[in-house]
């Protein structure tokens, strides 16, 4: 009976929140704040999205459609009253933008890699070259998870690597702490892997979209350069911490002697599409090609050559795409109504840039622990990019928040990889919390210290 009541209760809470958001601009105390009607309505939409994203009373992608509907029906007339030229296309455009195409291309690459079993081949190769030495095996697993998660879904990578590693840990003593360490390394390194490329995780796409909208162009290769030190440091610390907390002792792992079958046509075609797309993303900017335009190649080639079919197209994670688009649309409203400047004026001591970095990074780390990192980025980045700051400072702030979203992994529910690994039964809440807290603290420290120093040097 409770299972029936809870969904209805959630819908009631969501409806009440929606109603309160509509009434928000009409509260006399709120009206006396000095904000115009468009800004009040934007705040109402922002608060509504934040509550629904945190509570998950409705599916996250539905929140994006709620944002879009309110912006077109409710907010747009208030914007017109300010004599600002704006049309519905302003809010529709994020739902099929360059960034959405880029991410869609990434999802298609992930699908063809999985169907051709190239991801499993790569994981098998990593395990073979480590030859069962525990420290090297752990390093190989972390490196493999990070590399795959840079290009493929970190959720799918976690599931695939768990399938490869779970039989392996049966060779270890049941009370061996290294069993836990091996499994724990998979979700945490997959979470970190998303940092490395613009398609690695949705917050990266949200960040790039807003930066592009502000005239700050960050290419695929530049993103890798900006994030690589952050990724390497967190990976090395994770490897060292797991070995210390979950030592292998005298355990030895025996690798399978089975051999993979030779490449077939599907594998060669998939490898060609993957390599060609990766090269295109790395150098396409030099030829005036946007990353989203290049992403059309794997989409067209995969379905043209029959590597994917209509069933695969329907199975793409459209909810994530719409979730990202909704966050971008929210940022459009904040920008066009100049709400960002209002928020900036409310921040204490915002003239101190370091304080601003610390404030926003810590806020992002907290929110990323209790809600999805995509929702966290969708909530904070639109506010950040609307601030009247120099270009370099704006880019540093966005990078710090975005990368910190990927290190917020304290709870099993914090990220899908955490939830999948927790479901294996090998690791517990304390295990995830212990290492996840370390990664979270490390992410905060890097984002407010080494990160800005390095980024200002590179920019």
TrEMBL record:
<feature type="transmembrane region" description="Helical">
    <location>
        <begin position="95"/>
        <end position="116"/>
    </location>
</feature>
<feature type="transmembrane region" description="Helical">
    <location>
        <begin position="136"/>
        <end position="169"/>
    </location>
</feature>
<feature type="transmembrane region" description="Helical">
    <location>
        <begin position="289"/>
        <end position="308"/>
    </location>
</feature>
<dbReference type="GO" id="GO:0005886">
    <property type="term" value="C:plasma membrane"/>
</dbReference>
<keyword id="KW-0812">Transmembrane</keyword>
<keyword id="KW-1133">Transmembrane helix</keyword>
<feature type="transmembrane region" description="Helical">
    <location>
        <begin position="181"/>
        <end position="200"/>
    </location>
</feature>
<feature type="transmembrane region" description="Helical">
    <location>
        <begin position="12"/>
        <end position="31"/>
    </location>
</feature>
<feature type="transmembrane region" description="Helical">
    <location>
        <begin position="320"/>
        <end position="347"/>
    </location>
</feature>
<protein>
    <submittedName>
        <fullName>SLC13/DASS family transporter</fullName>
    </submittedName>
</protein>
<feature type="transmembrane region" description="Helical">
    <location>
        <begin position="353"/>
        <end position="372"/>
    </location>
</feature>
<feature type="transmembrane region" description="Helical">
    <location>
        <begin position="409"/>
        <end position="429"/>
    </location>
</feature>
<feature type="transmembrane region" description="Helical">
    <location>
        <begin position="43"/>
        <end position="74"/>
    </location>
</feature>
<keyword id="KW-0472">Membrane</keyword>
<feature type="transmembrane region" description="Helical">
    <location>
        <begin position="267"/>
        <end position="283"/>
    </location>
</feature>
<feature type="transmembrane region" description="Helical">
    <location>
        <begin position="220"/>
        <end position="246"/>
    </location>
</feature>
<dbReference type="Pfam" id="PF00939">
    <property type="entry name" value="Na_sulph_symp"/>
</dbReference>
<dbReference type="GO" id="GO:0005315">
    <property type="term" value="F:phosphate transmembrane transporter activity"/>
</dbReference>
<feature type="transmembrane region" description="Helical">
    <location>
        <begin position="379"/>
        <end position="403"/>
    </location>
</feature>
<dbReference type="InterPro" id="IPR001898">
    <property type="entry name" value="SLC13A/DASS"/>
</dbReference>
<feature type="transmembrane region" description="Helical">
    <location>
        <begin position="436"/>
        <end position="457"/>
    </location>
</feature>
């Amino acid at each position: 009976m409770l299972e029936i009541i809870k969904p209805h209760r959630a819908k009631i809470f969501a409806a009440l929140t929606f109603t309160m958001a509509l009434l928000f601009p009409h509260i006399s105390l709120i009206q006396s704040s000095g904000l115009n009607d468009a800004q009040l309505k934007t705040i109402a939409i922002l608060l509504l999205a934040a509550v629904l994203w945190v509570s998950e009373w409705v599916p996250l992608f539905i929140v994006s459609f709620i944002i879009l509907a309110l912006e077109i029906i409710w907010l747009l007339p208030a914007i017109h009253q300010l004599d600002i030229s704006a049309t519905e296309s302003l809010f529709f455009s994020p739902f099929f933008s360059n960034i959405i195409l880029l991410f869609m291309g990434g999802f298609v690459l992930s699908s063809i890699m999985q169907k051709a079993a190239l991801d499993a081949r790569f994981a098998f190769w990593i395990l073979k070259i480590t030859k069962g030495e525990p420290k090297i095996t752990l390093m190989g697993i972390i490196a493999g998870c990070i590399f795959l998660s840079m290009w493929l879904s970190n959720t799918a990578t976690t599931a695939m690597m768990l399938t490869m590693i779970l039989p392996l840990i049966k060779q270890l003593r049941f009370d061996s702490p290294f069993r836990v360490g091996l499994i724990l390394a998979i979700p945490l390194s997959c979470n970190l892997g998303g940092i490395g490329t613009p398609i690695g995780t949705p917050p990266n796409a949200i960040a790039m979209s807003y930066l592009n909208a502000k005239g700050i162009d960050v290419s695929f290769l530049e993103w890798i350069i900006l994030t690589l030190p952050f990724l390497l440091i967190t990976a090395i610390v994770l490897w060292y911490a797991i070995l210390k907390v979950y030592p292998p002792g005298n355990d030895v792992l025996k690798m399978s002697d089975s051999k993979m079958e030779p490449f077939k046509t599907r594998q060669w075609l998939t490898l060609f599409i993957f390599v060609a797309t990766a090269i295109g993303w790395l150098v396409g900017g030099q030829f005036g090609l946007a990353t989203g335009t290049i992403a059309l190649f794997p989409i067209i080639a995969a379905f043209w050559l029959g590597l994917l079919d209509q069933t695969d197209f329907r199975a793409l994670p459209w909810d994530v795409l719409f979730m990202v688009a909704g966050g971008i649309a929210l940022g459009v409203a904040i920008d066009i109504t100049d709400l960002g400047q209002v928020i900036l004026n409310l921040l204490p001591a915002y003239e101190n840039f370091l304080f601003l970095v610390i404030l926003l990074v810590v806020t992002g780390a907290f929110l990323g622990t209790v809600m999805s990192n995509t929702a966290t980025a969708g909530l904070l980045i639109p506010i950040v990019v609307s601030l009247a700051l120099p270009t370099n400072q704006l880019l540093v702030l966005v990078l710090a928040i975005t990368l910190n979203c990927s290190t917020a992994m304290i709870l099993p529910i914090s990220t899908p990889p955490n939830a999948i690994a927790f479901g294996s039964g090998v690791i517990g809440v304390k295990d995830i919390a212990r290492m996840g807290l370390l990664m979270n603290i490390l992410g905060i420290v890097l984002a407010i210290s080494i990160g800005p120093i390095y980024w200002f040097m590179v920019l």
